[in-house]
Amino acid sequence: MMGSSNPHPHCQVWASSFLPDIAQREERCQRAYQSQHGEPLLMEYGHQELLRKERLVLTSEHWLVLVPFWAVWPFQTLLLPRRHVRRLPELTSAERDDLAFIMKKLLIKYDNLFETSFPYTMGWHGAPTGSEAEAKWDHWQLHAHYYPPLLRSATIRKFMVGYEMLAQAQRELTPEQMSSSCSGLSRVLVAVATALVSVSSSCPQAWGPPGVQYGQRGKSMTLCCPGVTAGTPVSWFRDGETRLLQGPDSGLGHELVLALADSTDEGTYMCRTLDGALGGMVTLQLGYPPARPVVSCRAADYENFSCTWNPSQVSGLPTRYLTSYRKKTVPGADGQRMSPSTGPWPCPQDPPAAARCVVHGAEFWSQYRINVTEVNPLGASTRLLDVSLQSILRPDPPQGLRVESVPGYPRRLRASWTYPASWPRQPHFLLKFRLQYRPVQHPAWSMVEPAGLEEVITDAVAGLPHAVRVSARDFLDAGTWSAWSPEAWGTPSTGPLPKEIPAGGQPHMQPEENPQPDSPAPPRPSLLPDPRPLDHRDPLEQMAVLASLGIFSFLGLAAGALALGLWLRLKPVGKDGPQKPGFLAPMIPVDKLPGAPNL
Questions:
Q1: Residue 471: how many CB atoms within 10 A of its CB?
Q2: Is 468 helix (H, G, I), strand (E, B) or coil?
Q3: Which of 123, 387, 414, 587 is deepest in the core (most CB within 10 A)?
């Protein structure tokens, strides 16, 4: 994207004995403006943009980021210091720290724009150095340019071609669209920009109820008197106290600075003008900036999925979450041009303000990128999560589980259930199931995988209640197993086992005799733990297995003996030994038989 076959960040420092064309043009314009108006060109330009607030992107105590009115690239920005600085070494430590802060916020905004690691070219233009360092450069203002190439998506970039290369550059977005209204951008970026501009100002406003300001614990906090003009000297008091916190001669105007604010500084403050009139009241609430939320997603069917989140750190401040999603594309693929079908789209929170959003009508074989941004008065933090339906598919548990005894079979239980109601495509998309069961006093579960929507358990313990539960999974093993259904209980019939089948005869069943009304009821089974292990062995099954093993063993031994005899019979003898007769040759030569004639 930026001329490198292996994407990586890198930095270069260029030094030359002359001013390149662009720097020379900037120097000529700044010098001309300084000589005509008596102040640096970019200082005045930054001041005008602060007043108009039409193309501002970010502001902080020492820096501002704006979209210059001459911008050519769709998301081009200009980074300026608020005071007159000619070169980077002239920055104070506070300005350097604030520079790192605002650059990080700007790059986060760039990454959020198309939810990708945003490519860009960024460069500093400072006053010339070297042999020209001692010359008069008061007209020069330090500044940095950001030139991102992306146009409409993470894979669609702007190219300078045709008329733009031979005549004049053209804009796809006006500077006002990019910086102010953000037309065509995701609403996540707009809301995050609002939060960042709010926190970067000295007196954050426009968040929460009127008259409330928010600050970070352990950091310096500036309160602003809401009812007076900026810079008007005021006196500050705690509500309900007469002790003066800060007088009008402090030189701070309408602001009150609290160093390293903690929980004891929270509360309501009053400001009064020089004539004693109440300027206003401010309530201070402290907390922490947002951290990246913990996000997980799950699909209950083939068409919809939902994502839930939790804060990774409690901020103690009013917080909201902005959610969106988009279909991921494969870079370089032929059909991956930007279109309305790739998003981004808002992920509606269901119900509103809940920590859950739902995506309807998703494509099973596509991949999606989920954007969950936590926003509070101190900033914003974003979590991006890539998901595909086939990996997050997890059906809801089966429903309607029933367990019934089988009359006349004291070791059998019949379990039946239905598909979950959230699985609407049955029978076109099938589920498979697994069933677990155990007697109530035994902790270990036995498990089978039924072929349909019912299963007959054949090795239950007669007379003991059993717990049964079922879970489901996609028939082709996409995703994972569902949670277990609520347990259902059943007790096998107390009748005797059917008698064994006589040899060569028909099964002879002796049903259990119905107890007489006046006969005592059989004792209920004990629900106390049984120390004896469960014995699931069936005598008939054991006998059949042993008989089969005996038959196969006999046949195997007979075949082995026959093969050994044939091998010994046909085994060749060495060249010097006696010649072995053929297979059909008599064991005794004919000429040796009694009475055989001499031929």
A1: 21
A2: strand
A3: 387
C-alpha 551/C-alpha 360 separation (Å) is: 61
Distance CA 108, CA 102 (A): 10
pLDDT per residue as tens digits for the range 178-209:
554 333 333 344 444 444 444 444 455 446 67
The tens digit of pLDDT for each residue in 474-511 reads 998 999 999 999 999 999 987 655 554 444 444 444 44
Identify whether the C-beta of residue 352 lies closer than 8 Å to the C-beta of residue 221. Answer: no
Q: Please check the confidence at residue 459 and state whether its pLDDT lies above 60.
A: yes
For residue 494, give Cα distances in angstroms to 204, 461, 513, 520, 535: 76, 10, 11, 15, 18
Q: Find the Cα–Cα–Cα–Cα dihedral 174, 179, 180, 186, rounded to 10°.
A: 100
Instruction: Tell me the backbone φ, ψ of residue 150, rounded to 5 degrees.
Output: -70, 145
**Closest C-alpha to 455, from 411, 417, 493:** 417
* Structural contact between residues 272 and 278, judged by C-beta atoms closer than 8 angstroms: yes
- Neighbouring-strand partners of residue 51: none
CB 54 within 8 A of CB 179: yes
Q: Can you tell me whether residue 25 is helix, strand or coil?
A: helix
The answer to whether the peptide bond before residue 420 is cis (omega within 30 degrees of 0) is no
Whether the per-residue pLDDT at 420 is higher than 80: the answer is yes
Q: Is the Cβ–Cβ distance between 184 and 190 less than 8 Å?
A: no
* Rounded Cα–Cα distance for residues 384 and 373 (Å): 9
Q: What are phi and psi of 250, to 5 degrees?
A: -75, -20
- Catalytic residues, which ones? 10
What per-residue confidence (pLDDT) applies to 387?
A: 92
Q: Which residue has the higher pLDDT, 530 or 457?
A: 457
Q: What's the pLDDT at 579?
A: 52
Does 593 have pLDDT greater than 90?
Answer: no
The pLDDT of residue 528: 42
Q: pTM (2 decimals)?
A: 0.51
Q: Give 79-139 as a DSSP string.
A: EEESS---SGGG--HHHHHHHHHHHHHHHHHHHHHHTS----EEEEE----GGGTTS--TT
Say yes or no to pLDDT of 115 above 80: no
> What is the mean predicted confidence (pLDDT) over 212-228?
86
Cα–Cα distances in Å, from 290 out to 192, 200, 242, 284? Answer: 12, 15, 36, 18
Where does residue 16 fall: left (phi above 0), alpha (psi -120 to 50 degrees), or beta otherwise?
beta
Closest CA to 527 of 552, 554, 491, 499: 491
| Contact of 196 with 105, CB cutoff 8 Å | yes
For helices 41-52 and 21-37, what crossing angle results, to 10°? 80
The CA distances from residue 288 to 199, 381, 443, in Å, are 12, 12, 47
Q: Where are the alpha helices (DSSP H) in 263-315?
A: none
What is the DSSP annotation of 151-194?
-SSSS-B----THHHHT----SS-HHIIIII-TTS-HHHHHHHH
* Residue of 493, 438, 430, 488 lying closest to 463 (CA atoms): 493
Tell me which residue has tokens 């879970």.
471
- 291, 340 in Cβ contact below 8 A? no
